[in-house]
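3.2 Worked example (two chains)
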Amino acid sequence: MPKLTKAKLNRYQKVLIQILRELGAKVEHIEESVLRAEGGASPDEAQEFGSENYSAELQINIIQNEEEILREVHAALDRIQQKSYGVCEACDELIPERRLEVLPYARYCVGCQRKVEENGEID
């Protein structure tokens, strides 16, 4: 099975590092805005500002999703170091480059990803 070339691995590594920077900054910005929103309201004021609470909850959910992506990006960078990047963790086949272009931190090929999403695991 042909592996990715060193040049392609370097390119994906740069893309992943850029994702880390961008998501890290985004998470930090959202966290700061949530803290500012939560900081000044008394319980009575908080009831009056229900929509602000909803917004804060939404932002917290966004943070959690972004942090999950950050973990996946770190794992992908580890796979580059371990020389297993671009190989499906379930079937050991090469993940198509078209998939890596769209989702550079992909752990699975499309077929195995579908199984994970349907069953919660690989059979």
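3.2.1 Second chain
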Amino acid sequence: TVNRLEMMAAARMGKEAALLTTSGTQSNLIAVLTHTHRGDEIIVGDEAHMFWYEVGGAAAVAGVTMRTLPNDSSGRLKPDDIERAIRDKDIHYPETTLLCLENTHNRCGGTVLTTDYTDEVCNLVHLRGLKVHLDGARIFNAAIALGVQACALAENADSVSLCLSKGLSAPVGSVLCGSQDFIERARRFRKMLGGGMRQAGIIAAAGIVALETMVERLVEDHANARRLAQGLADIKGITLAQENVPTNIVMFELWPELSGGEFMEGLENAGVKVGLRNGRPFRAVTHCMVSSSDIDEVLTRIETVCRRLRHGAHE
């Protein structure tokens, strides 16, 4: 069953082989370990999941330094910035060996990297001798949003990770895809990290169901996210924190005069869960367990909380 899942994932990404892992964080770390050597430097966005939410594993375990470049609001890195960040060969410098992209981009609000952009950047760094790893945890969301096959987004990347347990809704799991040689080496690093599993077919079976039945329905999540964003924009006290909502992530902010702590407490009491980290905008994510009627109910509850806060602010 695991073999079947890996073959399916590789085919979906247009790669020769694939490797089941426990999480996207593990997939990304294995990719860094496989593409680089200790002391190398890798290029990532300053808003990248790999930089923010993966416990510094690239440094602590793989022994590489992360050179961050600014992500624009669409999650892109400017090609000129990438070009300048690639170090010349010099005994004093670490060797730049890997560029990491993210599609869709989490902290930028589920934004999508197009095939043209991805191909341009991959071609640029390949000419300089670098490899490209694509953190494609939500790559199927990007593909649905663009109306293309996921393999088109991963075609020129040397490796790509995809998550089975986000929009695809499997209980657990990620798959790392690449060339046959890359996956053979990656398999050793998975073992080193304690990621070799026995009787993993039960996990893989859910992943197969996810790939076979959950991809096309992502369009429903995107529609619900837009429905949520449109409703939030009409609530006095809330401002959207993104120009558009291309996939399933909605980010929004409170008016400055309203209390974020009281807002979160009010939402919790109302049975509504949203994300908030490090003073960032609030973050809401749609998925298969959230229907359009759920969205309408959430908007009603958020409006009620905001109305109470507005009245309190004017007392």
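3.3 Remarks
The chain has 13 helices and ten strands.
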